[in-house]
Amino acid sequence: AKMQVKLLEHIAGTGQAGDVIMVNPIFFANKLRPKKLARVITDEEVEEELEKKQSQMDELQKQAKAVRGLLDEDDESASSYVLTFSDNQTGPDGKKLFGGIGPKKIMESLRKDCKEFDAYSKEFTKQVSILDIEEQEIVVEEESSSENESSKYKDYSSYSSNGDEAAPISSVKYSSLPKKDKLTIKQTGVFRVKVALTKDLFAKVKVALTK
């Protein structure tokens, strides 16, 4: 009958460190035990390790959601949070940056600006990374000329109470930076940075770059 062991190191063709597998007793006695590559583990120990791992995952999710609530622009509690980079060196057009703002600088500023994120990123370093950076664009929606021509009467609904025309309807959209920029912001403006907090949870942080 085979025996249950836990691998202590990666073994090609057998498994990764931490895997619990069934092996032939002779293989364990002749190779795994002498080289301290595995140890015998009971069903009770396996259950305890699973419970401990689940507890750690629950704590990770709890902290990640708390940090997301502080940073994510879609969360009501974080609607006013903006990571700002000011006094940037720009070219003659006043928009293009000298150098650029990359993932490393964004993460450093985020850690400095939000102590909760700083503590989380230090405890769960492997979970945190920047997945994407999107640039904000304001799109102004205009009435089509065909609609204007089809009406014989002036449409006063587009005017404000003081007689002035109402402001045109606008919407906000985001588009990812070109792949060639490699997650580096190269001009002033408003951006949205997608920060991974766990494998399945991320925060969309609003970032503003000014001159």
From TrEMBL:
In which domain of life is the source organism classified? Eukaryota
- Tell me the ranges covered by the Ribosomal protein L9 domain, including all copies: 3-48
A Pfam cross-reference name:
Ribosomal_L9_N
Q: Give the GO molecular function terms.
A: structural constituent of ribosome
Keywords on this record?
A: Coiled coil, Ribonucleoprotein, Ribosomal protein
Biological processes annotated in GO: translation
Instruction: List the coiled-coil residues.
Output: 43-70
Task: Read off the InterPro entries from this record.
Answer: Ribosomal_bL9, Ribosomal_bL9/RNase_H1_N, Ribosomal_bL9_N, Ribosomal_bL9_N_sf
A GO cellular component annotation in the UniProt record: ribonucleoprotein complex
- Family statement: Belongs to the bacterial ribosomal protein bL9 family.
Which PANTHER family does this one have?
A: 50S RIBOSOMAL PROTEIN L9
Q: What is the name of this protein?
A: Ribosomal protein L9 domain-containing protein
- UniProt organism field: Pseudo-nitzschia delicatissima
